[in-house]
Amino acid sequence: MREVAVLGVGRTRVDEHWDKSLRELAGDAILSAFHDAGIPGVQGIYAGNMMSGSANHQQHLGAYLADWVGLRLAEGLRVESACSSGAAAFRAALLAVASGELDTAVAVGVEKMTDSPSQEITAELATAADADWEADQGVSFVAINALVMQRYMYEYGWEHKHFAPFSINAHANGAKNPYARFQSPIDERAYLKAPLVASPINVMDASPMGDGAAAVILVPADNLHSNNGVPVVRVAASAAATDAIAVHGRKDPLWLRAAEQSSQKAYRQAGITPHEIDLFELHDAFTIMAALSLEACGFAERGEGPRLALDGEILPGGRIPVATMGGLKARGHPVGATGMYQIVEVVEQLRHRAGPAQIEGARIGMAQNIGGSGSNIITHILRSDS
Amino acid sequence: MREVAVLGVGRTRVDEHWDKSLRELAGDAILSAFHDAGIPGVQGIYAGNMMSGSANHQQHLGAYLADWVGLRLAEGLRVESACSSGAAAFRAALLAVASGELDTAVAVGVEKMTDSPSQEITAELATAADADWEADQGVSFVAINALVMQRYMYEYGWEHKHFAPFSINAHANGAKNPYARFQSPIDERAYLKAPLVASPINVMDASPMGDGAAAVILVPADNLHSNNGVPVVRVAASAAATDAIAVHGRKDPLWLRAAEQSSQKAYRQAGITPHEIDLFELHDAFTIMAALSLEACGFAERGEGPRLALDGEILPGGRIPVATMGGLKARGHPVGATGMYQIVEVVEQLRHRAGPAQIEGARIGMAQNIGGSGSNIITHILRSDS
What we know:
With about 375 residues, chain A is of the alpha/beta class. Chain A is about 35% helix and about 20% strand. A 9-stranded mixed β-sheet of chain A has the order 3-2-4-7-1-8-11-10-9, sandwiched between helices. In chain A, strands 5-6 form a two-stranded antiparallel sheet. The first copy, chain A, is globular.
């Protein structure tokens, strides 16, 4: 397959976008990516979205968005894998271009959650879990993560306060990102005093919902050169893996096997080891997921994720900076769009266009998007020429 | 890209499957395809489904089904393009294998509609249309098609009774298919006397909802040979195109531009003309759609679709047999599964395993799956060695 590069990116701020419809939100991101790429359109649209059918009474986003951005007759498809729908759309678009089936494609992640009342959103999010054996028993998505976090603290002896650095780092980085939902730093006191959601998860452990869209234009990498000092960003690896959809179906609920599998595949494809990665946009939907991701991807030993954070190694100057533009926690988590925000942020870091959030000398970045409570994990590695 | 062939197929009968859950239904089709192919599993699952989020409170079918059929760690993805979700899943699986990304994949279409009350299903089906400009105005999916049919009859001078042969042919063929929802022939009197749904569409013009799943295993075509007289079936073409999602957004609401575009692309890929096609599994969700499809794909002149049917050319012995196993009308239309039923039926015809429904000497078959009211159309051509 041929090598693929990013020609342009676009995104809206993650926010409550009462003034925009689903198509306007996605359209803004797509048209801004067209503008950034300097092209009028593409041959195919791959839309990552989880809940527009219920939240916006609109499915069929492939045709819907192709129509809206003026690309009738183009190919249009929606891809869904719960919270990893964004990365799944990127991977589908990537495969279409890498295989030679299309010469240009846009991957867009979009979610407009505020059209739905929040109690309904909780039920809609639970459709990412096992309907028969999790959701129908009354366990919400945050509750599943709370059970995992309780067990993790019990097994490895950590206390709730030890997860604070994940949240503090995310909010500090979000404060430097004009597209972030929350742009204020928090301190440890704010973390510890936050209202409880499902013990031990409090509001500062959990990522917020929101409305947002992010898009990336993909083209073959041949003949692309750095332009005005902006380096070409190439896709070095793409890998996906699933695991048992219900947490109780896994032998070890504290180990993200699908993250290990997809990151190991990605490292092999890119020909690198984890310590060559300059930044890692991980899926910190909850602080516990940040810890588990770092362990499964080889950045920390089993049970030692919080240690890495407590040692400051996840900060912008640390060994493996994470959530560099705020992560799910502060940039926000518009579920089906999140994976595309991660990719856009990695691209901007590798192009050295991340502004105050810039990781100095960033050349290799990884984005990992998690669907369900660890059951569908998609890893991408991007690399810049510079 | 490398050539891809079908190694096995599986399906359930389209029915009201009160005794089976969503995963059991899909699992039955997948495991039966594994059995037919003689393999224990695959590297990736591509699930076509439209409404499991609302009808079954379960999204995330990639991980959900990979888990259920014993393929943890495999790649798993759901693909959605309304009523063409089945063909879209097939196309995604095809691209994964053709590109070399995977060596084995299963495409499965599944829909379990009877878990949802029928008035909710009507609202869920309307999410395939434009939420702002069609559904929110109170127009249901059948009503959109009724408006198109009214206009067609007005423009070209046909009467309702002239659409009878589409329905009669479908039911006659469904009677020969043990997997069909309806297995009784109908006559013209039954067609004319059927209760009205939305004028001029009556019950015999409209395809029934239902529960069902159909699956196909795809592998590279190299080294496959006919086995015990069953020829190898190869994928000769795959093409997708979109059009305005709202019917009023099209210059000519009586012309399926996306069908024309995707079928013309498919003919070029396969290197054939329409008259070389031995059977055509078209998307007869409504009799009017059968007529429009035949015209857009080059089997009839504009406005002359019903003539082809009245002349008997769509019958098993005719120039272009359609709905050979019952079509959407009699086999049934479990929306996200329909495109995969079409593919399975074409494969069975080309393998000469279609039993009493067999089209003699069938070597080239086409399947066309339509999402929305003509807004997302995916065409596949399959060819057997014999």
